[in-house]
Amino acid sequence: MLGARPGVPLSAAQQHALAERTEGWPAGLRLASLALQADSDPDAFIAAFNGRHRYVREYFVDEVLAPLPAYLRRFLLQTAVLRRLCAPLCDALLGLEAERAGEAGYSGLLLAELARRNLFLIPLDHQDVWYRYLQLFADVLLDQLMAGASAAEVSALHRRAAQWYAAAGEHDEALYHARLDQAAPLTP
User: Fold this and answer.
1) H, E, C per residue of the chain
2) Architecture of domain 61-149
3) Which pTM value belongs to this model?
């Protein structure tokens, strides 16, 4: 049983909420448990627990991202703006086009590699077409992107995503990314 402090167990509702925040990721539960030991308000802690928490951020940056080859890190950061991913969308986001229709393309190969490495990529269908990142990981990736890319670069990613979604007839997602493109501050 997870506890906020040694000898003070969390309620079933708190445990459930924490399991939801971590999406059941065992290391995430452990990191949260360690952090909870020093917290006096478990409910507030659980409600605010995300990829910006120091323990989570350090784990992902130092243990997951740092050892990866540069091309995988770059792909992860660039696709961090997406709430869900598929190979053609990622190729469009990166400014690539598949050689032939129906082929996985560059992004398809990278998504398959991320899945093989168990890198916090969650399939959204049984055909392994659509994925999303574990939310804690997505938080870290987006923060890393925002820290290392210019506003214009981030805006361009959202613009490409909006264009792809609009062409695919997914207007809600297109609008979501178009709004984020417009919200990006301009840099000289």
Assistant:
1) CCEEECCEECCHHHHHHHHHHHCCCHHHHHHHHHHHCCCCCHHHHHHHCCCCCHHHHHHHHHHHHCCCCHHHHHHHHHHHHCCCECHHHHHHHCCCCCCCCCCCHHHHHHHHHHHHCCCCEEECCCCCCCEEECHHHHHHHHHHHHHHCCHHHHHHHHHHHHHHHHHCCCHHHHHHHHHHHHHCCCCC
2) Orthogonal Bundle (1.10)
3) 0.83
